[in-house]
Amino acid sequence: MTSDESRESMTAHGSGRGPQRRQILMMGGAAVAAGSLAAAGSTTAFAQTARRGSTWDKTFPRSRMVDHKKVSFRNRLGIELVADLYSPKRLRGRARALIVGHPFGGVKEQTSGLYAQTMAERGFVTLAFDASYNGESGGQPRNIASLETFVEDFSAAVDYLGTRRFVARDRIGVIGVCASGGFSLSAAQIDPRLKAVATVSMYDMGRAYRDGQGYAPVPAERNSVAERKRALAEAAEQRWVEFEGGKVRYGGGSAVPLKPSQQAAADEFAEYYATPRGQHPRSHPLSLTSLGAIANFMPLAQIELTAPRPLLFIAGENAHSRYYSEDAYAQAPEPRELHIVPGAGHVDLYDKVDLIPWEKLTGFFDQHL
Question: CA angle at residue 341 from 337 to 346, to 5 degrees?
Fold first, then answer.
């Protein structure tokens, strides 16, 4: 399905609350397929073309205030990660650096790239990378979720930045947006080289799948144990299908119908990922068989190990996911800060530059890096 066909399909279904829209939604608040890149071959072909060319393929305009280049490096598992490196013009000496992680199923050409470029305008060397198995990064099969690997990717980014002659390796921080908020927190618990962590519209992906079929629900609409078991059984059955060569399924499945608050979150994500606002051909829903691995993820298990490094949690006042940041803040050791953005929803902080608290982020890293 092309991007135009995807938009036409959604328009034909009005508000999009039917099963066809649900099939293209990424459970867990990350992405809607802008185009059908389910086959690994087509994904790889696009990646190779993009990496050879110099065309600006981001969802945000290019800044003339920073330098940009595409780089690659390998994580501990040997998977090649592809990233965009942004640096201030007239860079002198060893600079402070920030790693920026994208939402679940997203790519560096979207939200994380916008954050990376903007923070480079403010004096930081920044790195926005594609998670393993996704985007232009390596790993087979394509478009699966391996959350241990996603956490490892942040440490691999520290490996890369800390060995650049223009980066001060003891002054590396991280911004994790949406799911990468949880991944970066998890990475900081085991990698003390991450000196300061800021999360934006944080999602705890394990909790999201356990409680809300991938979406943040209101408390009264959390999935029951029986519903969680039903969703896991569907994903387990799909493993047999794919093991025997059957078609790969993407998204969160259909065994458990979305409750109203979950559907509202799905609609909010679709306003970004399924429209020209945030669509990108390499942003793709992750596989249904990933559900079990996601449901086991608990990114706050050792949050006490982040001390004495500072943590900043940023969330929108009206965000359906706000409670993830509030609960993480409540569990976090000092020094910690919770910043609520007035009038903002969850996805607003992906790309609405007039709402994103740039001064708060800049001040936090100016103080702690």
Answer: 105
